[in-house]
Amino acid sequence: MTTKIAIFGVGLIGGSLALCFRGKPGLKVVGHSPRTKSLEVMLERGVVDAATLSMEEAVRDADFIFLCVPVGNLEEYLEKLYQLPLKPGCIITDVGSTKASIAAAAASLSRPDVYFIGGHPMAGSERSGVEAASTLLFENAYYVLTPAPGVPEEAYTRLEELLQLTRAQVVRVDPVQHDEIVGAISHLPHIIAVALVNQVCDYNADNGLYRTLAAGGFRDITRIASSDPIIWRDILLSNRDVVLSLLNDWNDEIGSFISMLEERNGDGIVDSFVKANQFRSELPERRKGVISSLFELYIDVPDHPGIIGQITTELGQQNINISNIQIVESREDVPGLLHLSFRQESAMERAKEHLQSMGYLVYV
Ligand SMILES: NC(=O)C1=CN([C@@H]2O[C@H](COP(=O)(O)OP(=O)(O)OC[C@H]3O[C@@H](n4cnc5c(N)ncnc54)[C@H](O)[C@@H]3O)[C@@H](O)[C@H]2O)C=CC1
Ligand SMILES: O=C(O)C(=O)Cc1ccc(O)cc1
Fold first, then answer.
1. Which of 36, 47, 122, 237 has the greatest count of CB atoms below 10 A from its CB?
2. Which ligand is nearest to the Cα of residue 336, counting in written order?
3. Tally of domains within the chain
4. Does a structural domain hold residue 290?
5. Which pathway, per its entry (predicted)?
6. Structural domain range at position 214
7. CA of 15 to the centre of ligand 1 (A)
8. Do 167 and 188 reside in the same domain of the chain?
9. Is the beta carbon of 61 within 6 A of some atom in ligand 1?
10. 249-301: pLDDT as tens digits
11. What CATH number does residue 211 fall under?
12. Which CATH number goes with the domain that contains 63?
């Protein structure tokens, strides 16, 4: 018996899920896109077993349907799906970064023969598209599931078991609570990163030294400002009320810094840093080092002991000098992306070629 998995939106997240499922015994992965070119790319890259322009064909006899399109398109896809013939017992899930709006849409579309279970893998990056997809993306990350009321435990367990292939840790969360928490730890930080980059961009228009000197800390805190504009437009509009309330609180935080500076309140500034240091040190993941380099590579690395040593030893044997190493925090809990810096472009190029020849996914 083959288990069929249909994936709509084979980009960074849909493509990474497809890679986790594809080639596993008894599983068949079918990708859908409304664009012929996208079908060609997903087949060429070996991300799916089959690809189709037809929604009907994609979902025919499917046991699982993953909606991996931007948040703003999820509802329209769900509505269309609910009008198609679907296999009884089929599980429909999504990967959207917000959960309350899709949960409400699913509730208004109830259909007794299929189950909707909202989902959100808490892993990703500022990159997008199937080109950035990786089997390692979700390894050891949290994967939130928000089952609709009335979904039988058996269906929830079936999805949870399939998701073991992503090596993520599944966690059940209420959709409204999800949006409040993820608003604070993901949506607000994206806005802050973009606002900060744009503030400096405006200063830089008058004096190019801003860009020249911006490195290290500025790059660290603003990596997520390079995220996809459409994906983020949809996320922020979908979680608008939560984000507006968070921005009000943010104004208060910034307001308190303004007051402390106006009043030359050194103790208050120290207290703020001490409080932040304390909370940050309790986070499950730690940022390493500050990077100020010229030529950089990013490498997807599995969460295996010794993997970083293996890569650096390999490069050492090739006489390639690394000037700095950083494990990029793009997910909860795990190192997933290795950031290597080189003083010379030729060293970066040689490292890239060598690591690619060893089968690593390398990004410049
Ligand atoms: N980027 C990230 O790190 C994370 C994103 N998500 C969520 O995953 C979903 C997909 O995001 P990514 O994979 O990052 O984006 P992506 O841009 O890499 O992939 C989106 C896919 O949907 C397709 N698509 C776009 N508009 C479409 C439309 N109107 N109709 C049909 N297909 C369309 C694109 O061609 C692409 O294949 C979003 O809902 C996002 O909120 C969830 C976790 C992490
Ligand atoms: O790149 C990062 O640090 C991210 O924050 C990636 C990300 C983007 C959207 C999500 O819903 C979850 C994770």
1. 47
2. 2
3. 3
4. no
5. Amino-acid biosynthesis; L-tyrosine biosynthesis; (4-hydroxyphenyl)pyruvate from prephenate (NAD(+) route): step 1/1
6. 178-281
7. 10
8. no
9. no
10. 999 999 999 999 999 999 999 999 999 999 999 887 532 222 233 578 888 88
11. 1.10.3660.10
12. 3.40.50.720
ipTM above 0.90, yes or no: yes
Mark whether 18 and 76 lie in a shared domain. yes
302-347 confidence digits (pLDDT tens): 877 788 888 999 999 998 988 778 777 555 445 578 888 887 778 8
**pTM flag (> 0.90):** no
Are residues 109 and 167 both part of a single domain?
yes
Cβ atoms of 114 and 141 closer than 8 Å? no
Q: How far apart are CA 172 and CA 292, in angstroms?
A: 40
d(CA 230, CA 104): 22
Q: What length does the chain have? A: 364
Q: Give the span between the Cα atoms of 332 and 158, in whole angstroms.
A: 24
Q: Which amino acid is at 306?
A: G
Indicate which ligand has the atom closest to the C-alpha of 337.
Answer: 2
| Token code pair at residue 360 | 């690593």
Are residues 272 and 158 part of one domain?
A: no
Pair (20, 159) in one structural domain? yes
Provide the 3-class DSSP secondary structure of residue 38: helix
